[in-house]
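To: structure desk
From: M.T.
Subject: fold request, one chain
Message: Could you run this one when you get a chance? Sequence is below, nothing fancy, just the single chain.
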Amino acid sequence: MNLKSASRRLCLLTLSALALALPAAKAQDATPAPAPAPAAAPALKTLALAKIKATPAILANASGANRKNSIDRMSQALDGQMISAVQQTRKFTVLARSDADALIEENAASGKPFAFTESDLTLVVTIDDFQDVTQTATFASIGKTATKRVVRFSTVAKLYETKTNKLVETANFQEQNLDTEELLPASSTDGGELSDSLLLSLTRRMSEQIAQRVADVAFPARIIAKTGKIVTINRGEGTGIAAGQLWEVFALGEELKDPDTGASLGREEMSVGKVRIQRITPRTAQGEISGEDLGIDRGAIVRRVAQ
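Reply: Done. Structure tokens follow.
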């Protein structure tokens, strides 16, 4: 075979190879690119509630003043109300440590080992002040005497990051009974039994305050929808929001950092208007923009205006 024939044959073989490879390349190009993986859905943080206790000094003082039963009832009632209030925020998977004994017993009955589930956050609530006195009022004009139980107690709530034991937030809360309808017989003295209605009212208000503060720290209330002058907020029944309240709206700006430590201070917040709450549902609330709208939109943070 001469050189010219060999060259022609090599050229034909090359063209044949290209012809065979072309359909495969086209088929490969036609194959659709894999779809991007969906973004992970937001997950609930797990919050462990430590058993509520009074400080040793408060317990000692209550015991000396014959009020130990009152403070025990208060702490036990607050424990149950706290579990309910935090659960109603619908922002956390709640681990109630005070129910551990019941869970251990149930697991033992079914032959399963018991272990605490890990948490992201731990809430520790301590009763640090407790006053329980009976006031007597004499009405000389009608010749009658009435007594009223006055109860005041305060707590300090501390929110920790469980894995690092870092203190995230701390706050003080106080509740006092001023209900003039809480009348007791004239013979009542300090240390008497707290009425069930008074106990429930005080502990419910206290637990709602604490639960709302915790939810606001982890997940600030936000606008999730806007139609004209009506906005929807991701706060519903049992979270302290109520018709008639005024809430201020803040648009988020750039990330802020402490120039001394470099620590994050959150994002800049700029007031863009106010909203008057009109309607509450189990999971959301609706309000109407009150006054000027300087950029109220979805994603903005809302905080209640003190009145």
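Reply (cont.): Residues 3-30 form the longest helix (28 residues). Let me know if you need anything else for the meeting.
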